[in-house]
Amino acid sequence: MKLALTNFSLRRPWTVIILVLMITGILASQFPKVQFDNDPENMLSADEPVRVFHH
Fold first, then answer.
1. Cα distance between residue 31 and residue 42, in whole Å
2. Phi and psi for 34 in degrees, rounded to 5?
3. Domain count within the chain
């Protein structure tokens, strides 16, 4: 399997480059949908002693 993949890559380098660029483009198009929650309070469970004391 490794040898077949290596031979394919060596015989058709542009196909491999285009395929990798297409996959990268598809994954990059999903990046705006990612949301980050950096609020430390949301990182603790609701019954965490520190969080209960704070409230």
1. 22
2. -75, 135
3. 1
Range of the domain at 45: 2-54
Return the structure tokens found at 36. 């980050």
DSSP 8-state code for residue 48: -
Between helices 13-29 and 2-11, what is the axis angle to 10°? 100
Instruction: State the chain's maximal CA–CA distance in angstroms.
Output: 65
The model's pTM is 0.60
Q: Give pLDDT tens digits for 11-55.
A: 999 999 999 999 999 999 999 999 988 888 787 888 888 888 877
Residue type at position 27 = L
